[in-house]
Design brief:
The complex is a heterodimer. Chain A is mainly alpha-helical. In chain A, 87% of the residues lie in helices and 0% in strands. In chain B, the strands form two sheets. Chain B has a five-stranded mixed beta sheet with strand order 2-1-5-3-4, with no helix packed on it. A two-stranded antiparallel ribbon of chain B has the order 6-7. In chain B, a hairpin with a 2-residue loop joins strand 6 and strand 7 (98-99). Classes of the chains: A mainly alpha, B alpha+beta. At the A-B interface, helix 1 and helix 3 of A face helix 4, helix 6 and helix 8 of B.
Chain lengths: 112, 231
């Protein structure tokens, strides 16, 4: 019988997202060094390519997830008071969510 | 030889202080425990635990020049002077170098450090193949000196919720044992954000273990096993 280990989810998310972020960052750095888009139009074209858009959205989800697990770990270690920790985690969730919405808005504006 | 030793008697002293001892010339091959015993001769109120004097019992674990270790197997010739000796970090001090390890032992107990065998007990020994027995090497040698757990920042912050490297090494020792029949329950009990997953692979435990054991690797193997079970 297989079972899910709940505490493991965050750990797996952290590792999987780390691998994806490493690959995605390498690709983007490669593109900007060796085949940089020559104009804003070309950049918009590159970003609005369906594969790139999906990869970018996935990157957004991964980096937000990675940041959530990492900063949550720091809060769990260093903030012993449950009330202060809950407030800090709430602020973190709000700021990460806002970042996500902001990036999606930028992407939508860039593609349209 | 000069030593600076942490002195604190919570029932009398307002705050801890460092007491200096000067023992003159060191004898060749002298271990730190012998030096401490000489210090105790000059000031009988100095308190520390010791028993076997040869790195087997794990009683005289302490913080030596900032690094946890056993005084009885630490050669004074290798230490920078003055030798600064403090109790194991992160635990309540009972007196001088003696700390309260009851929380550490409590975490050890929660991993059920014994074989769980549910089938009717056989008439003869439960045999293992030599390969299966080899799996336990590097795990069973732990002497519970607490050097590793008290060097672990995750254990400092959450000593009541995080099991600590010593207990987790023992958890893996019984999960890895082919004779044990409670693997599922053991893995389930290690789940959750605190009990094992507070380990951030800092590896202070590996750095200080006087027996050269590797709790970080054991924790990694528990995680692998959990991952396999959950797929």
């Amino acid at each position: 019988m297989t079972r899910r280990f709940q505490g493991m989810n965050a750990w797996i998310l952290q590792r999987v997202s780390a691998v994806y972020l490493a690959l995605f960052f390498s690709y983007v750095i490669y593109v900007f060094i060796f085949i940089p888009p020559s104009s804003h139009e070309e950049f918009k074209l590159w970003i609005s390519n369906p594969v790139m858009s999906i990869a970018m959205l996935l990157f957004l989800a991964m980096i937000l997830g990675h940041a959530w697990v990492g900063i949550r770990d720091v809060f769990m270690d260093y903030i012993p008071s449950l009330t202060i920790r809950a407030i800090a985690l709430m602020l973190l969730a709000i700021s990460l969510f806002s970042c996500g919405v902001w990036v999606i808005r930028i992407m939508v504006v860039a593609i349209i | 030889m000069k030593l600076k030793i942490y002195r604190y008697n919570p029932s009398q002293d307002q705050k801890p202080k460092m007491q200096e001892f000067d023992l003159g010339e060191t004898a060749p091959g002298m271990m730190l425990l012998e030096a401490l015993l000489q210090c105790k001769n000059s000031d009988e109120s100095l308190s520390f635990r010791r028993s076997c004097g040869e790195g087997v019992c794990g009683s005289d674990a302490m913080n030596i020049n900032g690094r946890n270790g056993l005084a009885c197997i630490t050669s004074v010739a290798d230490l920078k002077q003055p030798i600064v000796i403090r109790p194991l970090p992160g635990r309540p001090v009972i007196r001088d170098l003696i700390v309260d390890l009851s929380g550490f032992y409590q975490q050890y107990r929660t991993v059920k450090p014994y074989l769980v065998y549910n089938d009717p007990k056989p008439e003869v020994e439960i045999l293992q193949s030599p390969e299966d027995r080899d799996e336990l090497d590097g795990l069973y040698e732990c002497i519970l000196c607490a050097c590793c757990s008290t060097a672990c920042p995750s254990f400092w912050w959450n000593p009541d919720k995080f099991l600590g490297p010593a207990a987790l090494l023992q958890a893996w020792r019984f999960i890895a044992d082919t004779r044990d029949q409670a693997t599922e329950e053991r893995l389930a009990s290690l789940d959750g954000p605190y009990r094992m997953f507070r380990c951030h692979t800092i590896m202070n435990c590996v750095e200080v273990c006087p027996k050269g054991l590797n709790p970080t690797s054991a924790i990694g193997k528990i995680r692998q096993k959990m991952l396999k079970q959950s797929l």
